[in-house]
């Protein structure tokens, strides 16, 4: 059986698989990762193959303590160290100049590498036991919704890996914030650490302009995180909607009546943005399985993690 409970014994078995060049799906606090030894080009190559991910899209390298950063990065700016001290372990990814030990395939030929120290105890233990850093994108097919529980991992993905460690539901539910730190500090992907929190530590940061032609982080591709069912973002659920179609609603908070909607998913009955983020991908997975013609997604308030949720909804819309 490939699906294993995250006991210490099973984590050690999974770590041995990573060391031998295999693939392991493991839980993090954000989403499930599809991991391989980040320093082994052949193992990393398998990740791209399984995910059908274009080779120009670099991976995040996961480490289990801050001091390991020095092994894979160089010329680390003081501001990056401050951010790591403040937010690690946790959902912040730092893009920094890489050392030669990191293979080109892991960084898609870039001279920088994206690094993160996750806070999930299973992820940390796995990396520690493997004794190598673990490259891991989200465990979904390229462009599709990220999985936040093992039930949402697609067959073509789990069939192609050696082990899946079950860690239950991911607590945060939205991917890490990706920050490039050089002379300027630039947010390449909004995510689970709020931009305002980052600015408290390092001052004003730039946020990559959505309209800019230059793609600095391939995750900025305008279409991403998409369900198979067409999705449209609406300001509120009382707007005029087509009839004669099977329609789903992704609602932010409690809805009194289902109305014209065939299926309704509520992100947070009380309207809590953190709960909404934690339920976001699993709700979309359920709607996507419901054989609907279209999913309408209500805008969420742009406070806290609301920015990161709206970023993903806009990308899901532009399929
Ligand atoms: O929460 C997360 O970050 C999850 C968990 C598994 O850690 N991982 C994740 O990985 O979301 P992935 O591959 O789905 O997204 C990584 C993002 C992509 O948008 C990629 O383009 C960007 O990070 N990235 C990676 N290396 C980069 C680099 N050197 N320069 C700029 N962007 C980079
Ligand atoms: Mg992803």
Question: Please, could you describe this protein's structure?
Answer:
The protein is built from ten helices and 15 strands. The strands form two sheets. Strands 1-8-2-3-7-4-6-5-9-10-11 form an eleven-stranded mixed β-sheet, with helices on both faces. The chain has helices at residues 8-19, 41-51, 69-72, 78-87, 104-107, 121-130, 155-158, 195-202, 273-289, 306-317; strands at 3-5, 24-26, 33-37, 60-62, 92-97, 112-116, 134-135, 163-166, 177-181, 185-189, 206-207, 231-234, 247-251, 263-266, 294-298. With 319 residues, it is α/β, with parallel strands linked by helices. α1 crosses α6 (121-130). α8 (195-202) links the parallel β10 (185-189) and β11 (206-207).
Helical residue percent? 25-40%
In total, the number of strands is 15
> Distance between termini?
36 Å
Rg over CA atoms, rounded to whole Å, is 19 Å
Order of helices and strands: EHEEHEHHEHEHEHEEEHEEEEHEH
Name the shape in a single word: globular
């Amino acid at each position: 059986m490939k699906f294993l409970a995250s006991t210490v014994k099973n984590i050690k078995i999974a770590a041995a698989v990573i060391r031998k060049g295999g693939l392991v799906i493991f839980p993090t606090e954000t989403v499930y990762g599809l991991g391989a030894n980040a320093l082994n080009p052949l193992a990393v190559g398998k990740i791209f193959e399984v995910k059908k991910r274009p080779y120009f899209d670099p991976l995040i390298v996961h480490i289990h303590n801050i001091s390991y950063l020095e092994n894979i990065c160089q010329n680390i700016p003081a501001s990056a160290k401050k951010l790591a001290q403040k937010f690690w372990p946790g959902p912040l990814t730092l893009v920094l100049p890489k050392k030669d030990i990191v293979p080109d395939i892991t960084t898609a030929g870039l001279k920088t590498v994206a690094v993160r120290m996750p806070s999930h105890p299973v992820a940390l233990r796995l990396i520690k036991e493997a004794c190598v850093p673990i490259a891991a994108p989200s465990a979904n097919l390229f462009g599709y919704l990220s999985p936040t529980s093992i039930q949402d991992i697609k067959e073509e993905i789990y069939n192609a890996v050696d082990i899946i460690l079950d860690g239950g539901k991911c607590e945060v539910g939205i991917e890490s914030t990706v920050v490039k730190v050089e002379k300027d500090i630039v947010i390449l992907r909004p995510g689970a650490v709020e931009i305002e929190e980052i600015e408290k530590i390092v001052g004003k940061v730039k946020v990559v302009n959505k309209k800019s032609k230059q793609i600095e982080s391939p995750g900025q591709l305008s279409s991403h995180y998409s369900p198979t069912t067409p999705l449209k973002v609406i300001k509120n659920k009382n707007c005029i909607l087509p009839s004669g179609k099977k329609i789903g609603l992704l609602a932010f908070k409690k809805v009194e009546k289902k109305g014209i909607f065939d299926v309704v998913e509520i992100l947070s009955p009380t309207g809590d943005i953190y709960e909404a983020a934690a339920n976001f991908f699993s709700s979309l997975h359920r709607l996507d399985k419901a054989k609907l013609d279209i999913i309408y997604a209500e805008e969420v308030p742009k406070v806290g993690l609301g920015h990161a949720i709206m970023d993903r909804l806009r990308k899901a819309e532009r399929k």
